[in-house]
Amino acid sequence: STAIYSLYRRIRSDIDEHEGGMDVFSRGYEKFGFMRSAEGITYREWAPGADSAALVGDFNNWDPNADHMSKNDLGVWEIFLPNNADGSPPIPHGSRVKVRMDTPSGIKDSIPAWIKYSVQTPGDIPYNGIYYDPPEEEKYVFKHPQPKRPKSLRIYETHVGMSSPEPKINTYANFRDEVLPRIKRLGYNAVQIMAIQEHSYYGSFGYHVTNFFAPSSRFGSPEDLKSLIDRAHELGLVVLMDVVHSHASNNTLDGLNGFDGTDTHYFHGGSRGHHWMWDSRVFNYGNKEVIRFLLSNARWWLEEYKFDGFRFDGATSMMYTHHGLQVTFTGSYHEYFGFATDVDAVVYLMLMNDLIHGFYPEAVTIGEDVSGMPTFALPVQVGGVGFDYRLHMAVADKWIELLKGNDEAWEMGNIVHTLTNRRWLEKCVTYAESHDQALVGDKTIAFWLMDKDMYDFMALNGPSTPNIDRGIALHKMIRLITMGLGGEGYLNFMGNEFGHPEWIDFPRGPQVLPSGKFIPGNNNSYDKCRRRFDLGDAEFLRYHGMQQFDQAMQHLEEKYGFMTSDHQYVSRKHEEDKVIVFEKGDLVFVFNFHWSSSYFDYRVGCLKPGKYKVVLDSDAGLFGGFGRIHHTAEHFTSDCQHDNRPHSFSVYTPSRTCVVYAPMN
């Protein structure tokens, strides 16, 4: 890892020496793409493989002979277009543009790599680049300051397109007006938005990016997105963007693949440049122009749109040439710093975190790493990769493993170990289930627990089943113990808070795979590409109790800050009783995972003497429970030591219930 750090220092000083420093280098969008001055418009594009280049579009009737570009020694093409005689810009705002290049693989029209907006005309297959430069009066002006970074992160993960209960593609404006107030009410303090960067294929969930600087036009205009983010800030929510720098779409019509007609332009050549599992292209992070493009991209979203930080997708895939696939990480250091490490990619992540934390000290960076790479979430200054948080995927995987079996066989010690097994001093964002589990063919926790019973037995005035009773009880317990012990941040994918019953199926037509296998489509239907928030809000359905519990859990964290409290102690992991007891700050959490045994006068240890009261009870009627616990009871501690704690008090702990106690003073 010292080799990695010295390479980072070398590239950093090269940027300082030859590129005017990190500040200038990371504002590549002021040098590439379209720049308007008082005299006209300059357009620049890095395309060393091309033999000739011309700017074409509506402005010159797509005439490839009208506006030829010239190329410098570094492979950068350039053209200056003076203003029209009447002083108006040579390219009208909102008009379509492309760059036509004569390349080693033929003549091709490409969307400029740094394009700020890209639109698919109805009826067209390919997208068109849009020259985006609205008049001053149409530009959105931010009115609200960005909130300070919260100590505990409670992230509500969203996708704009499917955020409506209606079967349609939702808009930035509707999300701003309908979804943001809901997130605030639910008690989350951060909203993470997927699928912002333009992607030609809707069904890619936003992970196959074609235009890196363009917010997806499916949901509205760049100004609409800005007003969404400003409204979130007004509500005190930080806005995180799910940014994709780990790979790029292999689409050659709309994206960067084969941009200048070569295989090795932005990407590695040969098999290393193709991600075999994702069917996408892999960036060459050792190329200075690629570093400029990606660093500038991160900065653009923070600067222009006022995002408050990023969740970096696929960091594991970047850091290893095997992409972390088909390998098991045991924690031995040679796995992290060995032949398979993509040193350039690790250095890129260090540069990116260095840039973000240097210029935007309040910004948050979360890296998705499944490997447990040491120093991943330590500062760059001490040789770390520099993320603020690691997205802790082991917990969700553990719940899947446990839910495949019977909960009567769950081991309390094993659950606690998975939740608390983290690298020293590295902060984690944890989650009980991932957004991928909500996709067609996979299973959410609610579906693992209740399966088909969810379709018939969720009305409060109708019959229940053992599956439903068990499912609703464990759904709440799994979420609270994950949040209570799993990390300094918590993430929930929209709809999962109330056990959303339907999976996500993006609209799609029939397709034939390269193997010749036929896959039927769903008639391009949006019926399963929406979120039925109406179910969580319906007071006559059992979903409502689950939603109310999640809301109470978020508000409890807001009040007590237990995810980031200095004090944590697990005093009991009792395998026969199936009980877990732990302290976070002043709170005492009691979980009884037993399927049938409830315990009277059950003694729980605590640190502080005094009176304790119930502050959250998963068995409350409001949360779809059986109301077995009296909330008015006061629990007095005695000085009798218990489970290595100086004080203790006794409680009634019903089966499949979690209760949180707080001191009364």
DSSP helical segment count: 14
Which stretches of 5+ consecutive residues score pLDDT under 50? none
CATH topology of the largest domain: TIM Barrel
Question: In which range does the helix fraction lie?
Answer: 10-25%
| Total tally of structural domains | 3
What is the beta-strand fraction? Answer: 15-25%
Q: Mean pLDDT, rounded to whole units?
A: 95
Active site: 313 (nucleophile), 368 (proton donor)
InterPro entries: A-amylase/branching_C, Branching_enzy, GH, GH13_cat_dom, Glyco_hydro_13_N, Glyco_hydro_b, Ig-like_fold, Ig_E-set
Subunit structure: Monomer.
Domain Glycosyl hydrolase family 13 catalytic: 170-530
Report on this model:
- The chain has 665 residues and is of the alpha/beta class.
- The chain has 3 domains: 32-138, Immunoglobulins (Immunoglobulin-like, Sandwich), CATH 2.60.40.10; 153-560, Glycosidases (TIM Barrel, Alpha-Beta Barrel); 568-663, Golgi alpha-mannosidase II (Immunoglobulin-like), CATH 2.60.40.1180.
- The strands form 8 sheets. An 8-stranded parallel barrel has the order 10-11-14-17-18-19-20-21, surrounded by 4 helices.
- Strand 6 and strand 7 (106-110) form a beta hairpin.
- Helix 1 (2-18) packs across helix 8, helix 3 (172-186) runs parallel beside helix 4 and helix 5 (288-305) packs parallel to helix 8.
- It is elongated, with a radius of gyration of 27 Å.
- It starts with a helix and ends with a strand.
- The relative contact order is 0.08.
- The mean pLDDT is 95.
- It is found in: Plastid, Amyloplast.
